[in-house]
Specification:
Elements: E1 5-7, H1 11-21, H2 27-45, E2 51-57, E3 62-68, E4 72-78, H3 82-91, E5 96-97, E6 100-104, E7 111-116, E8 126-130, E9 133-134, H4 138-150, E10 154-158, E11 161-162, H5 164-173, E12 178-181, E13 183-184, E14 187-188, E15 200-201, H6 207-212
Parallel strand pairs: 1-12, 4-5, 4-6, 4-8, 8-10, 9-11, 10-12, 11-13
Antiparallel strand pairs: 2-3, 6-7, 14-15
Helix pairs in contact: 1-2, 2-3
Length: about 220
């Protein structure tokens, strides 16, 4: 059993994941499902948010409620992570969103950084790295590297599905980063498969291409 990995067992999450896997699912529906599933996963990933009491006046009386005491940053990895922002933002409308541009070199399978507009000093206490697929783990590791250099100490990865290889790679470099996904699939494709290496198997294809109708 992989440690520090939280897999959603919610029936609705598993239902939506099945619809995402179907090759017949068109881009519009695919984007809707990613947004809905992302909302569910972010809900589960934020159960330990720090809170504080606050007085609130109801139509009947005054009582004590609870409010968030922790600033959260959403960090989608471009471009596939963009589809997860809307769902996450519905739950955390006050969150800041910081984009990281990383793509995987299809020859080396290594991440290449091309966009980073983080401010000089961190403005949030918790960062949720959003990326539908945790495959080789390269992009996730690079994103966490950037965020830790920025000064953030509390980071979580939220994705739709992961491969065991990607989880092991991420936790080798960053064992403190929790992983929240809808499922952990069997493996990555390799040189003996008919598909290109580095894809999650059985997976759902390329999440970026399927969202944006490309490829």
């Amino acid at each position: 059993m992989l440690e520090n990995v939280f897999v959603s067992r919610h029936p609705l999450a598993q239902h939506k994941l099945t619809l995402l896997r179907r090759k017949e699912t068109e881009p519009k529906k695919f984007r809707e499902l990613i947004s809905e599933l992302s909302m569910m996963l972010v809900y589960e990933a934020t159960q330990d948010l720090r809170t504080e009491p606050q007085s609130v006046t109801t139509p009947l009386t005054t009582t004590t409620g609870t409010v968030m005491a922790e600033k959260v940053g959403l960090v989608p990895i471009l471009r596939a992570g963009l589809g997860m922002v809307e769902g996450a933002w519905k739950l955390l409308p006050q969150s800041e969103v910081w984009h990281l541009g990383l793509y995987r070199d299809e020859r080396t399978l290594k991440p290449v950084s091309y966009y980073n507009k983080l401010p000089v000093a961190p403005t949030v206490e918790l960062c949720l790295v959003l990326d539908p697929m945790l495959a080789t783990g390269g992009s996730a590791i690079a994103a966490v590297d950037v965020l830790k250099e920025w000064g953030v100490t509390r980071i979580k990865f939220v994705g739709l599905l992961a491969a065991p290889e990607g989880i092991r790679a991420l936790h080798t470099e960053h064992p403190d980063v929790t992983v929240h996904v809808a499922t952990v699939d069997e493996r990555l494709t390799g040189p003996d498969d008919i598909f290109p290496p580095g894809y999650i198997w059985p997976g759902l294809g390329d999440a970026g291409d399927r969202q944006f109708g490309t490829g």
